[in-house]
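[Meeting: bench + compute handoff]

Bench side (C.D.) handed over the final construct sequence. Compute side (W.E.) agreed to return the predicted structure before the next meeting so the bench team could plan truncations. Sequence as handed over:
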Amino acid sequence: MKSDFPYYFNVLVDVPLPAGEGLYTYGSYFELPVGERVLIPLGKKNKVVPGYILSPAEPKNGVKAILERTEKKYFDDVRASLIDWIMRNYVSSSKVLLNFLFLELLEEAQTKISFSSNFSDLKEKLILKRKKSSKRLIAFLQNRGGITYLKDLPQNRSLSWLLETKVLETSWEPLREQKLVKNPPKVTLFWASWKEQYQLLLELLKEMQKQGRQSLILVPESSLIEPLSSLLAKEKLGTLSFYGEQGARLKREIIFKSQSESSLILLGTWISLFLPFFNLGLVCVLQEESPAYRVLSPPNFQAVNLAKVLAEASGAAIYLFSRAPSLSSYLEAYREQTLIKKEDKPVEREVLHYRGDKGLAFAVLSEIRRYSREGKRTLVFLNRKGYANVLQCEDCGMDFSCPFCGVRLTPHLDGLICHYCGYRQELPLLCPNCRGTNLKAKGIGLEKLEDQLKSLFGDLVISVSSEVARSKRAVRSKIEAFRNNPSSILLGTSILQGHAFPPISLVVLLNLDFSLSLPFYSATERAYQLYKNLESLASEKIILQVSRPLNLDWLDGDFYIQELRSRKEAGFPPYRRLLRILFQAEEKSTIWEAASTAKKILESIPSLVATAPIPCYHNRIKGKWRLEILVRFPVGPVPEELKTLYHLRLPKKVEMLLQLDPEELD
C-alpha cells in the first residue's frame, strides 16, 4: 500500500466524545514523540481541536494530516502505556482518560515565566500604563531572580496583558521521563499480618532511599494515609500524599515534586498512578483485596491491575500486601511462584447461633463486659444500617416496600427509609392492608445494637452510624475516641473498613451467614476477606454470631483452591472476563425490546457466552425496571465486536449501562 505520509500516529482527541471514541489515526510529515500536544482536524467540518500523540500507528489510506505541533510533551511512554491498557481492556472516551493525566496542572508545573530579553526597553514605555497588579507581579518576579514557575505565581489579572506586551515570556520545562524496560520484575504477593507487612514495607522503602529511587505506596482509602505517614515519620522516612479530594494548588506542588525529587516516597489512592514519575523503583499496594480499588467512575477499571501495568512499564518492583488476597492476585502469584505467605498465630474463635431479634446474645454481652472491665477494647461489626431488617405486620404478614424500588424499606428510629432511592415515610401505627396494630421490626440493625449496648455500657460505646459516616472527619474523630479509651466498645458497619485502629482484644462479627447468601459470584470471597481482616484485628478472640447453623470448614481449609475450582467450572473471573449489560426504563416492554436486540448482536459473536435477558436481583430501582445480560469472554482486551454495543440504537427512554468485570450484581 502506498503511504500518503511518512509517519502515522494514534492521537487522543481532547474533546468530549461518547464512550469508545476519541482515539484516531493521523498522518504526519515529521516524526513526533509520544505525549506531544498537536492540533488536528476533526469531523466532516474539519474543526481544529487539540490532541496528544499516544503511539505510532500502521499506515492507512484516507487519514487526515496533523496540522500543527506545539513541541510540548505532556506525558511519557510509561503513562502512555497506562492509557493504552485502559483503552484496550475497558471502553472509555479519550477525554475521560486525558483528565486523569492532570494536563492543566502539569502545564502550570512545567511552564516557566520570566522577563523577556527586551524587558528593560519596554519597562520605561509601559511604566505609566501599569496598574498596581502589574507592579506587584513584576516585583514578585524580581524577588525570584527574574524567573519562576507558573504554579508559583500569585493570581494576578495583569499576567495575560504582560505576556501580550512582551514584558514577560513563557518557556516549557521538558519532562523528566521514566524509561520503558523490557524485563520487569514479577509481581510479589505478600500474605501476612499487618506487623509483618509493615516490617517488609520499611525494608523496601529504606532500600529505595539508598538507591535514590522513587516509591509509590497505594492505599484503598485516603483515611489510611495520615496514620501510615505518621508511622513512617517515626522511622525518619518523609512522605508526600496525593488523593482526589486535595486542592489544585497542593496537587500542582506534588506533580512538580514527582518531577524533581529522585527519592520521593508518595502515599496515595489510585489517582496517584498517573503522576509523572521519572525514577520509580517501587510500587506497593496495601490491602490489595479492597473493593475501593475498583474505580467507580468511567471507565471503571481495576486500579490494582493498573498498578501492575505501571510497575511493568517502569521496571519497578511491585509488592501486593494483603491479609486475605483476592482470588485473581492469588492465582497469578501461585502460577508465577511469587507468593510469600507468613502464618500468624490464630486467635480463639467462638461461633454462637442466635435467632433472636433483640441484638447480641447474652453470652456475647457477657464477653464484652469481661473485656471492658479488664481495660481491653472491643469491636462490634454489623454490615447493616437502620434499626432492623424489615417492618412486618404479624397479623397478615405484609411488609413495607418502597413504591419506587423493588426492595423492602429499612426501619430506622426516625422512619422507614429506602437505601436505594432515599424514599422516606413515617413509622406507621396501623397496617395499611388489614388495619392491624401488631407491627414488628424484625432482624438486627446498627441502631438496635447501639440502643442495646448503650443501655448496658453507657458512654463506653462509640457508634459510627450512617449519619456519622457522611463525614470522614467525624469518622476519624470517633476512631480517635476509641483509641483514647482502652475499655471502649466501637460499633460500626463497612464504613470502618479502610481505617487504622489501635490494638483490639475482642472482635464480634454478626451475620456472616447473610454475607454468604448474597447472589453475587464473589459473595464467598468477600465473606472470607471480611472475616480474615476482622480476625487480624483481634489480638485475643473473635466471636461470630450467626442466625443459622454455619459450616466454617471453608474458613480454615484451602479456601483458594476450592473457590478457584468453582469459578473455573462456572466460567467466572479470574478465568473469564465478565460484562454486565444493564437495561433500565420506566416501561417494562421497552427494556425487553432493547435487551432482545442486544442479545441478537451477542449471538453473532462466537467467542462470547451470553445469558438470556433476565430481571436483576433488584428488578426495580428509582422507578425504573431493570434487566441484565451477562456476557463471558476470554481474559484479555475487550473484543472489538463488543464495542459496537456502545453505539446500539435504543428505544426512547431506555438506558443501557455496560459494566466490565463487575464484582456485584445488585
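W.E. noted at the follow-up: The two ends are 51 Å apart (CA to CA). C.D. will use this when planning the next construct.
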